[in-house]
Amino acid sequence: MQEKHSASPNVTKTRAPARPQKRRLQTREPEALAPLGTESSISAVSEVESDRQDGRRNGLAWLSVGLGLAGLFAPRHLARLIGAEESEATTWTLRAVGGRELVCGVGLLSGAQPANWAWARLAGDVLDLALIGTALQAKNTRNDRLLVAGAGILGAASLDAYSAWRLQQGSRDVAAEGIVVQQSITIARPPQDVYAFFRDFQNLPRFLSHLESVRVDNGHSHWVAKGPLGSTIEWDAEIVEDRPAELIVWRSGPNADVPTQGRVQFRRAGEDTELEIELRYDPPAGEIGAALAKLLGVAPQQQMSSDLRRLKQVLEVGEVLHSDSSIHRGMHPAQPSELSEQISKEVRS
Amino acid sequence: MKANCWIGNKKVRVQDVPEPKILNRRDAIVRVTSTAICGSDLHLFNGFIPTLESGDVLGHEFMGEVMEVGPDVKNLKPGDRVVVPFPIACGHCRSCREQNYSLCENSNPNAWMAEKLWGYSPSGLFGYSHMLGGFAGGQAEYVRVPFADVGPLKVPNGMDDEQALFLSDIFPTGYMAAEMCNIRPGDVVAVWGAGPVGQFAMKSARMLGAERVIAIDRLPYRLELALSRGGATEVLNYEQVDIHDALRSATAGRGPDACIDAVGLEAHGHGALFALDRAKQMLKLQPDRPTALRQAIQCCRNGGVVSLAGVYGGFIDMFPIGAIVNRALTLRAGQCHVHRYMRPLLQRIENGEIDPTFVITHRLPLAQAAEGFDLFVNKLDGCEKVVLKAA
Predict the structure, then answer these.
(1) How far is B119 from chain A (nearest CA, A)?
(2) What ipTM, to 2 d.p.?
(3) Which residues have CB under 8 Å from A151's CB, separation 6+?
């Protein structure tokens, strides 16, 4: 999913589960990132988590490579080290084990389908434990060393199992890691104007395509997002930080079905405003999460880019521009249609 | 209503489609009286521009009578006769305020498609693919014109359709190509392609002070038109002479001061490189065929300007970047910022400095649009420019 979006030339990117990337915002105005939500900024949370995951995976991968090389090229030393019988059969077994480890390690390092490689490592661990068990019953072995080796394999196996499980979660369920969308745009209006428009959250559904409505009431706002098959997902939000013409940070209240946070920043650039938005959804696993993930689309980054372009249109020309094809969901030839009639009535009323 | 629709590669058909409606507050609905087939429509016709859909209404050169305006259009009223620029521009964004109308930041609802291909998106255009907006075009009885308070130019009473029609595209496009050459008195300008845009580029180059204009084409009737009406002082047929040698000797070894490519991505040529380009284009290995552009670069004098009026959509191979770098050439391009040029060029027409109708060779009813495409694409019957009468 990630790789696809990076094809988009926009300044920013989706950073949901996988690789963290350098952020423009951080280099420019570091203090702006600090105050969101709990202990750190929304994006920092996902970066730390994905850093950890990468670290764990790489550790296991290099362990595999090391063991693999030792088994392949120094099987006799390895046999002595783990207390196995020094025989021709042991040598060839260790060579085979080494080859397998090397393949797993390189596979993990390649980054392609890391979960599968981690599971393969786990299967190898089970096989190794069986081999140790067999060796324990043989003569001419150092059982104390074999037991230490077995304990080591058990430890590695538990790490492999955890890692494989996490990696699989990551690739199977974007929602489990949270959906983070970040985009920016330049608008030919001063920051005060752009801020004022945005600060009235009731304006947001005019350009944020996944929102149906936002109702504001005594400093609290009630957000309704479109769900599949006409359903809706709703939450209350509160403003966490509000600096006129500079920054708005908000987050959903404690009882939200889908915890969500957002931050929008306004920077003056000549007579224009550079707006940067960051939204995070932490959908629970299961139905609602899947529904929201689907709703935000397979390309939330591109969607947000289009949403911001609509915001720009509203602020620069007063409304969202339609074309003969853009008024239709999905593809439609560039020719007038019956739908035009309906929109036309709304415009003229 | 009747509209000329793109059906598939090399196939257009006039069909019945619903009439357009006001979709935005600054829209106008125009009843088309005259429209034309542009050379760039041929690139669509031949399938070289991506993101077309069967049923797309073509046409971006058109004029007519205002029938209805949206609530925010204050400068036009029903009954006004207008000619409409082919790029759609909002008039408010930074690009529009800098008069770079074909780079309008708010007029392409499908900007993300263009961004995938080109990095960023230009303005939306009438009837020119979905990645440029998905707007129905003007080869139809009626057309919706967005940002009607910015684009359409009122045609003076008493001026014929045909006098004003080409202000929508080819006259300003040719003019901008010449303007980009920074012509100084005494300059020699070579123009590849004696099609309609090439003719206007030549004429404009003369208006802007070029002393000599050399037209390059392979079709004798087009070269004759360039000499007799287009303002060319000399002509070269690339099927008869080696263009580089001929230009070199015509300029005493310097090369032309400026070279205009008014051909674009479907250039004709000869030799092994042309055959290779054509094969690569057919195999989709190279979307654009840059025969004319390469030659223009090779032929331009040291430190000169190469100006692109022809349309390119994607990518080219064997680009002579070495010539550009080592001989300090300037390469200039852009879809025409038509809005910028309409009024001054209308003035030139009114002053009698130019009669734009000189390019018209065929007049057909809209219903015969497909025949018009056939004449134009195959260069039949001395075809230079086809005007379709919609009403």
Answers:
(1) 6
(2) 0.92
(3) none
